[in-house]
């Protein structure tokens, strides 16, 4: 099958090649931005520019803003864009070009976090999210609050894969961003291996499947929306499509929260078992507390609040069970003689179970009590 036939199969029709001057400007500016954003990854401007400036780029129709086509290593841009938009949307597609790996026959074998073995690629949605997170960093996007499908969350990419970018950022919070970025650029398993070591291989595979489900479900929702807007349909047909869309939105919402809770449960529960020193405990406590800033929430979503209280109780018990001596650096924990702080936790839990602090609208009284707990808890001073 020819390249033109493949493109038409995806609904893309080429209008004309992008002029050489514009291609060179895009290649130059994007190369500079990649180096500025990721100076620690050893990129060389001349190497990037030479690679990107040689890529075929086209103006086309019947597509979204931009698309990378690996069979001819070409980028297709939607007709009507100015230079600023061409450059902006080129970032994501040029990362795809950089990360692609092919065999001797020219078949794609790997694309960042995505591998192509057998009939179905593995990790496609994970890779799309990671690439968009990279692109957002290159473009110096800042975090902002967004709401989609009744989920409110923080994201650096509110208009492109916003939910997936939020979730991949949660995964990067666990591993550290650098290993995610390096692995995505260089198409290796460093990120997967580190996340697996911290949370388990089965968890990583489950999350990858959830990412695929979220991406596929959102694409179905968009198709239904476009069909309703662009096609004259009977009232009964429109009602049926809206009903189908609502059901898909519920499925997407469920997949999002299942993914988030899997990340939280697997990472923090596993990490809790490894705490030995006072420094370990303090880092753990702060990392769990700060995780609230990046989670998605919805009305009556109490998971993080309940999990936080449960883990604080376990942390208090672990504090009691740890060694009763100090080493030369005074880093080992000393058991408390009186367990007053579990009582505080229990009081907060009983009194405010139905008013968690980490929903979109927390109660001030609850926050005040939790703040007092954090200030008074003896673990707070063991640094």
Please give a structural write-up.
The protein is of the alpha+beta class and 383 residues long. It has 14 helices and nine strands. It has helices spanning 3-9, 20-37, 45-53, 83-99, 124-138, 162-175, 177-186, 190-199, 201-230, 235-272, 278-290, 303-321, 340-351, 364-376; strands at 13-17, 57-61, 66-69, 74-78, 100-102, 108-111, 114-115, 144-148, 151-155. The protein has a four-stranded mixed β-sheet, with helices on both faces. Strand 6 (108-111) and strand 7 form a beta hairpin. The model is unreliable at 333-340, 352-368 and 375-383 (pLDDT under 50).
Quick take:
With 383 residues, the protein is of the alpha+beta class. It has 14 helices and nine strands. The strands form three sheets. It has a four-stranded mixed β-sheet with strand order 1-2-4-3, with helices on both faces.
Present the secondary structure layout:
Layout: H1 3-9, E1 13-17, H2 20-37, H3 45-53, E2 57-61, E3 66-69, E4 74-78, H4 83-99, E5 100-102, E6 108-111, E7 114-115, H5 124-138, E8 144-148, E9 151-155, H6 162-175, H7 177-186, H8 190-199, H9 201-230, H10 235-272, H11 278-290, H12 303-321, H13 340-351, H14 364-376
Parallel strand pairs: 2-4
Antiparallel strand pairs: 1-2, 3-4, 5-6, 6-7, 8-9
Helix pairs in contact: 2-3, 2-4, 4-5, 5-6, 5-7, 6-7, 6-10, 7-8, 8-9, 9-10, 10-12, 12-13, 13-14
């Amino acid at each position: 099958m020819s390249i033109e036939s493949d493109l038409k199969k995806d609904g893309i029709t080429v209008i004309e090649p992008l002029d050489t001057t514009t291609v060179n400007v895009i290649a130059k500016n994007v190369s500079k931005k990649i180096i500025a954003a990721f100076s620690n990854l050893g990129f060389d401007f001349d190497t990037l520019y030479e690679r990107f400036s040689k890529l075929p780029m086209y103006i086309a129709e019947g597509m979204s803003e931009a698309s990378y086509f690996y069979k001819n290593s070409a980028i297709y841009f939607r007709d009507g864009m100015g230079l600023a938009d061409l450059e902006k949307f080129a970032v994501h597609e040029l990362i795809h070009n950089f990360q692609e790996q092919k065999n001797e026959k020219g078949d794609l074998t790997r694309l960042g976090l995505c591998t192509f073995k057998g009939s179905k690629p593995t990790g496609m949605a994970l890779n799309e999210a990671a690439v968009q997170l990279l692109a957002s960093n290159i473009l110096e996007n800042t975090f902002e609050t967004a709401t989609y499908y009744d989920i409110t969350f923080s994201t650096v990419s509110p208009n492109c894969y916003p939910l997936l970018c939020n979730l991949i950022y949660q995964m990067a919070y666990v591993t550290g961003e650098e290993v995610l970025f390096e692995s995505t650029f260089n198409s290796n398993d460093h990120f997967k291996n580190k996340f697996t070591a911290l949370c388990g291989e089965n968890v990583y595979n489950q999350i990858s499947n959830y990412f695929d489900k979220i991406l596929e479900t959102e694409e179905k929702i968009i198709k239904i929306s476009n069909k309703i807007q662009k096609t004259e349909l009977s009232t009964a047909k429109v009602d049926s499509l809206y009903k189908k869309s609502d059901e898909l939105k519920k499925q997407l919402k469920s997949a999002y929260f299942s993914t988030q809770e899997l990340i939280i449960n697997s990472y923090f529960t596993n990490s809790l078992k490894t705490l030995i020193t006072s420094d370990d405990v303090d880092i753990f406590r702060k990392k769990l507390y700060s995780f609230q800033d990046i989670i998605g929430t919805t009305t009556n979503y109490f998971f993080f609040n309940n999990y936080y209280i449960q883990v604080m109780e376990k942390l208090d018990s672990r504090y009691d069970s740890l060694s009763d001596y100090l080493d030369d650096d005074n880093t080992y924990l000393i058991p408390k003689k009186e367990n007053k702080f579990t009582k505080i936790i229990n009081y907060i839990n009983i009194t405010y179970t139905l008013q968690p602090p980490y929903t979109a609208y927390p109660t001030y009284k609850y926050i005040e009590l939790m703040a007092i707990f954090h200030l008074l808890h003896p673990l707070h001073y063991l640094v």
